[in-house]
Model the fold of this input.
Amino acid sequence: HGGSRILRCAAPMFACCQAETDNSRYQAIESDASEFAVGVHLSVLKDLLATAIAQYGAQAKDYTTSEMQTKIVLPATSTQNCSYLEYLKSSQQTSGIGRPTHFVSHAWSNRFSDAIQALDNFEKQTDGFQNIYWFDLVVVSQHGTSTRPFKWWCGTFQNNIRAIGRVVAIFSPWNKPVYISRAWCLWELYCAINTQSKIDIVLPDTQRFAFIQTLTSDFETIESALSHVNVKDAKAFKDTDRKNIVRAVESIGIAKVNNLITEYLRKWFSATALAAIETIDEWESDNKELLVNRVRSLLIDVGDFEGEQKLLELFPCEDWDAAADIQDDQMLRYELETADQTTDTPEIVPDLLLLASFRKAQNNHDAAMSLFKRVLTVLENTSGRNHPELIPLLYDIGELAELQHDDKTARLCYERAIVINEMTYGPRHINTARSLCCLADLLRKNGEKNVLENDVSTVRSLYERALRIFESESGEEHFTVKHTRRKLGQFLAGINDFEGAKTLYTKAVNVKEKVDPNHTDVADALCDLADVLVKQGEFDNAKKALERALAIYEKVSGANHPITQNVREKLASVALKK
Done:
């Protein structure tokens, strides 16, 4: 359901550990992310390709990543029996090596030059020229890879994705990406979705242009390619890996994982298509009308009504009114068909959910609530009151209840979600932490001063418990930790526990400074810290914190950016108070 603030993840993070392995000497290895907490700048990968071209000529441009391993990486590192990154370090070539900001998920059977081209495009589009990539070819030693068991590889990929928090997935070719046919790639994408990591799907230049052109000529081909994901049919270099991945996914549910990945890819496709047609004036008008209608249909299909509204604003057309009437007729048909059912059954649940999302987007909250509750009743009758598939529905009903100012119903939903998460995944799982945050957010949504007296300790304990889980499961640098720590800090400051808030913000500064002292996350935490210091009357320390924050914002965002100007005003205000 597109409107929720929670990413639905009803699957255990460590399912990979349920797969069997015959190699007992690796059993003790948990594959801590810190073991490979290092990556390389794109320039290092470009230099690696240049080395291949220098040795083998222009044909090296067509080498797959697998061929780069056998022809370049393994020979270069054979004497030291180490990773290519360690080989560079030993050769005093340390430029472009640092803590990774992005995990690169890619198929080894694709051209290595395509991966470089895709990352180059990604950096140009996002101004990410300082990105450091966790690229397995260079980060992991390629010697003895066949002796490492599935559990080691699974843990390595999953833990690094979780620790880094950002994934770049390279799709090529666009019309039938090798990526979605490879078992390890699908496992990495599932891990990224399940850990709520930010995912960027990128294409090489040649593929990106073909993608845009085919949007108008063969829209269905792209949509079909991204709508048929089946982990069970995916391939792997080692058949034992494929079987282990299938076994791990079966413990979660093949259909659930397939649907989770497919839903993500379809939403990516609809968002990418929407972004692409913003350059529609460059295309033929006949194609424009056809494409806009197709994209609108897809946006509605994936429940992205905000995207649909943006499309309507970008391309106002008299025909939209007629199209809207048709859509309303379709929704009315759904309404009549489902209303005529004497008994709601699982078969009509998709229609009920579609209609509920549509009514919610129309701000018809009463109708949407009635539909969501009908779905809840169906699922309770078919799967039981404590089945994890109820969790996303409880979030939907809770959010809708908040919009209706029915905080009692919202609280019951979030409390029930906590119980089911604890029963299903355990008290220390990140899914449990997310439901804890939902309840805490609800209890303090009207401001700290309006939190009921008996709920103050509850809100604090909810945030503190969620923070401990996120820190343990995702690492101190993950964005979920940042957001939860900030919410807890704001709450503590709101109830005048300034020392508690100051401790949290100081920790946030220290954690981020170790990674990148000039990151805006550091500046954000410094500003939060300064606000608390001002309330404590520590104007000198507040001034120092704001000066550091201002220097970072000026360097990263520019002197005239609104955030920079805001910090400059805060600094002037503190100087006056002092």
Remarks:
- The beta strands are 39-40, 97-98, 102-105, 133-134, 166-170, 198-202.
- Confidence is low (pLDDT under 50) at residues 1-35.
- The two ends are 50 Å apart (CA to CA).
